[in-house]
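Below is how a single chain appears once it has passed through the pipeline. First comes the sequence as given, then the structure the pipeline wrote out for it. We keep one example in the README because the format questions we get most often are answered faster by looking than by reading.
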Amino acid sequence: MVKQLMDLCFGCIAQNLNIISSVGKQLPTLHKEKILQWVVDHNMLTADYLPHVTYHLFSPALRTISFCYCEQINDKLLTQLDACQCRLESITIEGCKEVTDAGISVLLSHQTELKSLTLNELPELSGSGLEALVSANLRTVDLKQCINIANRGVLTLVSRNPTISTLNLGTCYKLNNEIIPVIASSLNTNLEHMDLTSFHTLEDSDLISMSQHCTSLRGLVMHGCNRITSAGLLPLFAACTQFQNLDISFSYKLQEPKHKEFLVHLPLSLRSLVLSGLHLEGQDILGAVSRLPKLHSLRLCGVNSLTEDSASEIFQAIGPQLTCLDMTGCHQIMTDDLLRSIVKHCTSLEELALGFCVKVTGEPLRRLFRDKQRAKYLTLLRFSGCKEMTHDVLLDLSESCHNLERLFLAGIKSVDDTLLFSIANHMPNLVHISLKSCVGSSVDTVTDSGVVELARYCPLQDICLAGIQNITDKSILALANNCPNLKALFVSGCSKVTGQATRYLQDVSNEKVHVYHRVPNADPNLVMAKNLDTGEFCRVDQTKWSQW
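Resulting structure:
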């Protein structure tokens, strides 16, 4: 993989705004947005360079901005952006700790054409800045992990923007259930999707309010909402006839015998159901899912109250219709026998997650992998923590699943360079791989050779190598030179990886790369240099010339 010419041009222009005459007048809006994104992702908003950025790239024609995890984004810059009189359709500001309500208020005050607003992980945001927004086009609002946002800002936002159809308030811990009836009455039938993850004060009365107003609701996430019972769910299910996605994981009251009635009243329109963490009996789950003709995604993470027999009955009943099955953490019941039942009955799988099921060797999966017709549909496999999975099974996986995009193999002892070479040669669409703590014997293990091969042939965007002591800067530089769209790199515990290499990777990548590298006692004096023959940067002590 190499950078596209267009990406090289964007990077070149972004780094030379101060010397290219009138470049802003010659760029179309789409290119201005991409170059602005490049500048933000590479932390170039310094005091000296910022005037060139605002002069050439801030324009009334801007329609989209995305500022993520950049410490240079602050209220002053948002005020400057507003001064250019842009009418944005999409705003994303995530993890920028210097942004407060003051800057958000100024930016939103004139955005009458805004369609999508994403404000995530902004600890200084109390919500008063949201009160300035009025847009007849607003459809999506995502405020997850704004831990200090309060009721008032959200109430004003929904009352002034009743067109919102998707609202995410997940892990906004200062919000309480007093806002739910107002949200329901304000958004009414426009509301289609809502995320209330860890909304601990949510009660049955709030669900009843939603059932009276939000009859178009299609998706609801209530992960960790421990006060809800069947008394609130039943009216909601009766009113919302288009329900498709439901997440009630870790809502522990629902597992009590007196509150399990909701299971036999789940909407027949459901396509995705998440029951993770609920200790429900096998027959209860079987009775619930067997009556759902459209169900294609089932997540039962950590539901160890099932027996092998009851789980097998579930797969026999609905297996053919499932495209996604997640049994992560079901370590007490998941054996090769039960896995054999999954392979036999779940004939349409695209995603399979068996994380931390430590009893499985994976041998029954060979039947799935050797069926070319079924293997070609697999896009995600999660086997992290399945430490007994055999090398032969993984080789079959690598040679058969040509359309796999995400692969999680953390903690599996049999992963080695031979497997990585096979993955590189057979998986041209792989963008995410986790190899955390894949440390087998001293002979068969993961080294730079395997990682370099992955980097050469797979369009990686996310890779985890944490805990693998053999990895050096050679792997990091291979990723830098071959995976221009990398977004996340996990190398904590890799003591031979230096900060120089990871910083170089961040500098040359197209987008912001989140690097997680925690290593004590790393050598601070290692030297990097450019190979004039290849143009690649490399560690001097890892080249043949270092021995001359």
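The chain has a mean pLDDT of 94.

See the next section for the split statistics.
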